[in-house]
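May I ask for a protein sequence together with how it folds?
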Amino acid sequence: MLLVLIAILTFTGLSLTVMSIYWFFARPASTMNARLDRIDPSLALVENNPLTVMAERVAEPLNRVIPISAIEALKLQKQLLQAGYRSPEAATAFRAVQITLMVAVPCFVMTVCFLLNRSIVDLAVFSMIGAAVGFYLPRYFIRKKTVARQQRITWGLADAMDLMVVAVEAGLGLNAALNRVAEELKTLHPDMHGEMELVNLEIRVGRSREEALRNLAERTGVEDIRSFVALLIQADRYGSSIAKAVRIFADSLRTKRRQRAEQISQKAALKLLFPLTAFLFPVIILVVLGPALLNLYDILFK
């Protein structure tokens, strides 16, 4: 009876996990969103993209049992924004996946322990470990995705600044320059293109340029973009030359990018030290001292 109950719980938990992951990451776009994306890809960024009913039904009762505070919800929403998930229901889907994994992983661990005839203590310990893994695994995934996206945006920012210098010095206004740069970055840096497109859309729908730029800094979480936004806001507020400010920032950003590359290259030598010590040096010692050790063995033991 216990084995049947564990098998049913495991099957249910794994099914919910697979369905949550599929609907969260691989759900096909609706017909309306597909048409909007074909007409103008930027419109899909602000179109309301509701999450599936399944994720909401899974998260709603579980959120009542394990509620989340307003501060934690705001923090989670910010983390998902920086990872690239802009949907208002992204936090609900994340909680659904997280809580489902907290149920599915311990059920799977309990089934394996029961089949291996482990003790009750082992079953309880491994179940707690499985619940902890199910809780932290989605957060680890979001963190890795956020770091990778911020790195792509950082590398794309230098090219964006060079293009903006050319656009502003050619006589375009700041809004027109942002729009032009976003179009040019569409293929090479899609993440930076999407963020700048969203800035242009916010300005188009009536938000102030300062608010749209501050939202850009909050969505990305990149320190270089925060500095760039502060520079643009200050230049716009005090009436200084935007072209000169952007050129100075582009030069400093290019220098910082080169220094960052040099720092990575210098770290490579230190990182190579450990595999060389572990794998290459023993082989060299064996090749150099091997014949002498064999001759010494022949002299002493024969």
Summary: The first helix runs from residue 2 to 25. The chain has twelve helices and no strands. Residues 151 and 222 are 8 Å apart (CA to CA). Residues 27-52 have pLDDT under 50 and may be disordered.
